Amino acid sequence: MEARPSLAAGRFEREIRIDGLLDEEEWKNAPVLDSFLTTVPEEKGTPSARTLVKVLVDEKAVVIGIQCFDPEPDKIVRFSKLRDTDISEEDHIKVVIDPFLDGQSGYILAVNANAARYDALVSNRGESENEDWDAIWEARTSINEEGWVAEIRLPIQSIYFDKSLKEWGFNVERRIQRNQETIRWANVQRDQFFGQTSRAGLLTNLPVFNYGIGANIRPSLVGSMNKVGEDGAAVLDMAASLDASQRLGANVLATLTVNTDFAETEVDTRQTNLTRFPLFFPEKRTFFLEGSDIFEFGFGTGNRTVLPFFSRRIGLFGSSQVPIMFGGKINGRIGNTAFGGLGIKTNSFDEDGTSYDATAMGVMRVRQNVFKESTVGMITSIGDPLGREGSFMSGLDFTYQTTRFNGNKNFIAGAWALYTDREDLTDDRSAFGFKVDYPNDKWDLSLTYARIGEFFDPSLGFVPRKGIHSLRIGSIYAPRPEWPLVRQMFHQFFLTYIKGIGEEWQSYSVFTAPINWQLESGDRIEMNVRPAGENILVPFE
């Protein structure tokens, strides 16, 4: 196994001003990281421009300074200015840190030349990013005749970490958009994802971090005044709420909410439903997003098949908000074990002329790291948002992952099983499935299967279709020809086939891309063929 590259963090005692200039004396004395290689257009090639990275730390923060040299700074691609905007097609810097050094989790911070910030949790073992997560951190940039500079400050209170560690997983990626060029410090193979922290380098010489008392209290008061008719009396309505959190160590957080107010929550993206199945809207409420990666379950599950825990079942019913009286949550990591627990009590409410009683709900998730990059876990929940009696769900999952298959290739295989119970459920209340995936640069192959029982219905989950066998096959062959204008050719085939349990087929869809060429300029030439069919056996509205 090849040694992981390392960068020693420098120290600072006086405050570092985050202004994108790197003009403090501490920056001049800090160790420098400059050994970048290209991932694209050439693997392990020489970058077209130099990049220097320095890191300073004290007991309360990590400060990262990055000098992006550019011989033509007027051609730097930069247009986004809003937070969490997609900056992938602009010049930008992306940093990933793994404060548990477990190779399976991490935090991603990115900034473009306009100082537009993007942050995310490492998700699906590095294959994807949960961009709904937001943390408190700063970033400033500046542009000069030598290129552009980014300066980032991450307060240690914004993340979970293993306090006993003196080194973290760490990697940096830079995008030079006009050249369609991506460079990295570590993990430069095209087959590897940037978020795969098991392949990251190391940030060493870390201090004993001090997160303070670790308490955060946020009270709020919302008022409204209503008046019916010209002669009606004005009625003042006031509602107080409280959100509080307390760290129980560097890597465990307990959170309390009372009379929860979600007035500041980002609105949902508008969607139009052209199918006979419910749409999926991702969670955006901060209380539920914190530590949400721990509740991810089962390789091959998702909003197209099954999510055993979907937090939007709590506090929402249709388009209406259900009052949350109080709730508590604890989540974190101890050693190789990640865990999360959530308990909520909602108030009674009326919807479409039907009254629903107050009810209590809870969910618990435990995930254990095994081998080097694999996991085994369990999940269970009790309670029902509509107060139906006897609601219970439990499941097990195992995921085997390696980034060193056949040398340095990715390979993932996972299986899962779930069981639900409730007073109105009978017969087939189970679900199970598996997925095998070979996600690499030239070949990306996958096979996913799920069987969802007819009466499988987790009260706190999301299941768009029940009583089905679901099969998905994916194949991408993506050679990189030595042609002057074409960078990569994607030959794609995806099949989704759904059959009722003991019934005829219900639907199928095929996606093929006989021509999908990515040009050296970044443009694409693409032709798709998408046959699909629906066999509607039962009338619907």
Quick take:
By secondary structure, the chain is mainly beta. The chain contains 2 helices and 35 strands.
List the domain count as a whole number: 2
- Summarize the main sheet: 17 strands, antiparallel
| Helical proportion, percent range | under 10%
* Total helical elements: 2
Overall number of strands: 35
Shape: globular
> Termini separation (Å)?
58 Å
Q: What portion of the residues fall into strands of 2 or more residues?
A: over 45%
Radius of gyration: 25 Å
Mean pLDDT: 92
Instruction: Report the structural category.
Output: mainly beta
Extract low-pLDDT stretches: none
Write the layout of secondary structure elements.
Layout: E1 6-8, E2 10-11, H1 25-29, E3 37-40, E4 51-57, E5 61-69, E6 92-98, E7 107-112, E8 117-123, E9 128-130, E10 138-144, E11 147-155, E12 168-176, E13 181-184, E14 201-204, E15 215-226, E16 235-247, E17 252-258, H2 286-289, E18 316-317, E19 320-321, E20 324-334, E21 337-346, E22 349-351, E23 354-356, E24 359-370, E25 374-382, E26 392-405, E27 409-421, E28 430-439, E29 443-452, E30 468-477, E31 486-489, E32 491-500, E33 505-519, E34 524-529, E35 532-534
Parallel strand pairs: 1-14, 2-4
Antiparallel strand pairs: 3-13, 4-5, 5-11, 6-7, 6-12, 7-8, 8-9, 10-11, 12-13, 12-14, 15-16, 16-17, 17-20, 18-19, 20-21, 21-24, 22-23, 24-25, 25-26, 26-27, 27-28, 28-29, 29-30, 30-32, 31-33, 32-33, 33-34, 33-35
